[in-house]
Design goal:
The complex is a heterodimer of chains A (246) and B (431). Chain A is α/β, with parallel strands linked by helices and 246 residues long. Chain A has helices at 40-48, 72-77, 95-109, 117-130, 148-162, 178-190, 207-210, 230-239, 242-245; strands at 2-11, 14-24, 29-33, 53-62, 65-66, 80-83, 90-94, 141-142, 166-170, 197-201, 215-220, 223-228. In chain A, the strands form 3 sheets. A 6-stranded mixed sheet of chain A has the order 6-9-10-3-11-12, sandwiched between helices. Chain A has a 4-stranded antiparallel sheet with strand order 2-1-4-5. In chain A, strands 7-8 form a two-stranded antiparallel sheet. In chain A, a hairpin with a 2-residue loop joins strand 11 and strand 12 (223-228). Helix content of chain B is 21%, strand content 38%. Classes of the chains: A alpha/beta (246), B alpha/beta (431).
Chain lengths: 246, 431
Amino acid sequence: MLDIINLHAEVEGKKILQGLNLKINKGEIHSIMGPNGSGKSTLASILAGKEDYEVTDGDIIYNGESILELAPDERAQQGIFLAFQYPIEIPGVSNGYFLKEALNSINEARGKPVLKPVEFGKLIKEKIKKLKMDDSFLKRSLNEGFSGGEKKRNEILQMAILDPIFSVLDETDSGLDIDALQIVADGVNSLRGPEKAFLVITHYQRLLDYIVPDFVHVLVNGKIVKSGDKGLALELESKGYSWLEG
Amino acid sequence: MDKFAARLVKSFNDKDLGTHDLDWVAKYRSDAINLVGNLGIPKLSDEDWRFTNLKDFASKDFSTFSGNEATFKKPKLPDHISSIDGFFIYTHNGILVSDSDYPFSFSKIKDSFDTPEIKETLYSQVSDKNKDFFYELSSAFIEDGIFLKVDKDIKIDKPIVIINSFDSEANLKFINSRNIFYFEDSSSAEIIEYSVSNSDNEYFWNKTTNVYVGNNSKVEHLLIENGSKSSFIFSNLKIIQERDSHFTTNSILCGGSLIRNNVHPMLNGEGCYSNILGLYLSIKEQLMDNYMFVEHLKENCGSRQLYKGLLDDSSRGVFHGRILVHEEAQQTNAYQTNRNLLLSDSAQVDTKPQLEIYADDVKCSHGATIGQIDKDALMYLQARGINKKKALAMLIRAFTDEVVEPIDSEKILDVFHNVVNDWFSRSKIMN
């Protein structure tokens, strides 16, 4: 599904990714761990198409085609979803309106019918309930004044509604208590399927107790230096990263 | 006396405006033209004009104009204006050309000088010791314009739509419009003013409206300035509010090469509320100078100023927000906010609050921001599949909508959104 080939990228002239290779197949969950500044969030931003990053070499192939020239909205329409590490607050745009516009855009791009207001209302109520969120949230401005946990739950809600094919979770677990973590993990797990894939970026092994990955990769200085199964995450938890940094 | 003022004094004398059958009219005009001569055209050294240089404007020779009703043709209006279900009134190069039977009265001001409300309104300048050149100029040339009156206890159930149209006859002319809108006690109305020019005419439109809002009355006013891109527009809106009245004015400025937009509500009775809202949308070399002066004269009143600017190209915006709370005006709540989005690197805005408070038990606040489209917000919306144009439109809508939050009238809201969308769809950032 996704093939990252020898990816080099920099931001403001600073080299961040230096030859990253990663292949993700349908149905798989991959996790990327790594010390601060290793390039984890850069990778997430580049996958989503954030414009501040410059890819200097390599390619990202998604379902057989390079996505490097696609705008962020085109990538989203093709089923790529990034759960942001720091979701943006947008005063004056309500959550409900935003979700409706987003879903309509994606449905339209996929040639699916645009939902009628009643159908949309039903869909959203069901998902909100699953994520234990309050109805009043729809009327509030997008992420404005949300607690850290609410913001992360909102990312998962968006994911549940937009039904992406390939999802990147950028430190979605940071700042969550154990209850909130469980809700978020349940949300992700319910979206798993043989046609879907996930890339879970995290600092903490505990998330991987709830979202069990098929592969764990360690990113150091913009390269994957070690790959393994979930056992690697446990090893990192006890030994840290220094033994890999050399 | 400067040349510009001298020319105006000469036209005043040529037109013999200092003589009138009614002594008070003659005196009112004569007093005003004396002040025009004495004040002279404002200069940058004048604190109230420090951001707006009138030198180029003052070097032009605008001749005075005696209108021509016969050449009036109904202007081409955008659908969102022509489709309003309202009471339409037309002016043509400043001259009232409509005469319809509506549930309120309206007439040319020069035909109505014997109506007591006119003299009463013009002379009841409850405060205002500062004299303004353009206001005095409007008083000196008071002749063309509309006197509009809504009677006591009457609710006008459809918007009153005033279309001010200009054509090539207005080119290089000084057009003086002096309106009085008089709302008797417990009346209510919505007024939409729209100005339009059939081509790029260079006119000097000096427009002053005195509004009297009687006890317990409610008035919502929307002004859309969409005239010629080469015109010079000096707009003065002075409002006297009596007890328990509620007045909302919202200015959307798009047209004009130079606009000076003065709004001056005087809260002259207890329990009044005044909303002073505005949105300036500037492109190219436009200069939009907004001068707000909110005057609290009595107890227990509230006011809210909210002005927002979207500035593209090398346009400039000015916001000057003055609040004056007189000693008697205890328990005043007065708020002021000015927010600006610069859509290009060469756009510029100057913003200046000015609070003068002589009462000791009041709540006043002010705040100003200048920013750009939030790239992270744009990215966030796009990352959810929303295309860039739509995402930009959502962010702009979120920015501009705050300006209409206090407005109740759905018709006014519709018109507002259509005007903003229309402007924005033509802006550089969307193309």
